[in-house]
């Protein structure tokens, strides 16, 4: 449904439930720039991963977060889109997803950049990841 301000409204059913109490509103502003949309997604989601579908490191990152009880929002981006879409300050840091270089997966928790798989694993091994996930209400 198109609204007067140029945005679209869409209801999404969560967990296959048809109960209207479990629906989340998703607003897409067609005039919003890609950079602004990415910044908004990072702000609005407790845990968000910018991932590549064919990346094994992205899969490991997702599995770790799911195992810890976090249900991250996953945005699948192609390699060329990841390099051009994420602002330089967000996709830099020297971490790649492995298997051929390039920009690897990037995870944000509570609006703050954690980084790639290497940074996420370091945070997990230090015991700080679960604490951080609990602080933002993303883990049980």
Automatic annotation (TrEMBL):
Domain Glutaredoxin: 47-87
Protein's UniProt keywords contain Cytoplasm: yes
Superkingdom of origin: Eukaryota
Keyword DNA damage in record: no
InterPro entries associated with the record: GlrX-like_pln_2, Glutaredoxin, Thioredoxin-like_sf
Main location: cytoplasm
Subcellular location per the Swiss-Prot or TrEMBL entry: Cytoplasm
GO cellular component: cytoplasm
Keywords assigned by UniProt, alphabetized: Cytoplasm, Redox-active center
Annotated Pfam families: Glutaredoxin (PF00462)
Sequence similarity: Belongs to the glutaredoxin family. CC-type subfamily.
Protein name: Glutaredoxin domain-containing protein
Organism: Papaver somniferum
